[in-house]
Amino acid sequence: MFKKILFATSASPACDNAAKVSFDLAQKNDAKLYTLHVLGVPSRGFSTTVTDLRSGEEETVDADYRDWVMEELTTTYAAQLADYEKTALELAVGVPATEILRFARKEGVDLIVMGANTRDDDPESARSRSIVGRTMEKVARLAKCPVLIVNRPCTTCWKLFSNIVYCTDFSPAADNAFEFARTTAEEIGAKLNIFHAFDMTSSKMGLFPSQSDIERQLESAQKKIDERYVSKLKDYDNYDVEIWEGTPYVEILKFAREKQADLIIMAHHTAEVPAEDAELGSTIEQVVVRSACPVASVSRA
After folding, report:
1. What angle do CA 164, 167, 172 make, to 5 degrees?
2. Contact 118, 15 (CB under 8 A)
3. Tens-place pLDDT, residues 54-71
4. Checking DSSP bridges between strand 32-38 and strand 147-149, what pairing results, if any?
5. Neighbouring-strand partners of residue 6
């Protein structure tokens, strides 16, 4: 399913969960795994002095510094590297999101794996402050391939995924995400849970929909799911469809918990604007920082 996977890491403990998923995925798919670490942002223009992203100190990027960082990477992932040889350790200098996107484009990777937050001194900030890291947000927005965000320990990982929750609001971006969800479920034989949450918070002028309005919306959603998604599953019958009403991100998290989901797949943004101009949708952002399982953000088909 994946031939080339990029694991973007700061090599800090905050990336350990993403590392486990990356190496598992690569082994499962017999894929080439690139483990990329961005050394830091140049202090001045094309200066060889960078501000180290982990320590915040200025470092001169010479051969000795590169060798030292490479040794650190090798030591950090020694156990995983011993189990899987098709791995390349890579270093880059620059703005992290830019370098991650540049590397992904150059190598034509199929998937990017990263954590929601990579700060050593604040590994829980994504949860406590309910916001995602700026690097993750930019990569998810501009990447041409799916971005898998691992924010908590993954107890099953890709080898054992059995329940995938795909969430849709019927936007074109969500339709693109469905193709990734369908392919993934069929490839690994997982159950595909197709889920839609009718947004009860979108009331106008303080008027909330009546029960009959809600029932009409749910009926309409069922028809859309049948036409757009179920019709494409053909012979694949390991799926289920559910439609709930409420606050979308709350219902998605409740549904994923009830189904003991291993993976949630959503569109990066749902407004009909170019991905380059889109902000990370508030629904997926809240799901990313609160989900107990990895979340795949799909920005393009």
Report:
1. 125
2. yes
3. 666 777 778 888 898 899
4. unpaired
5. 34, 112
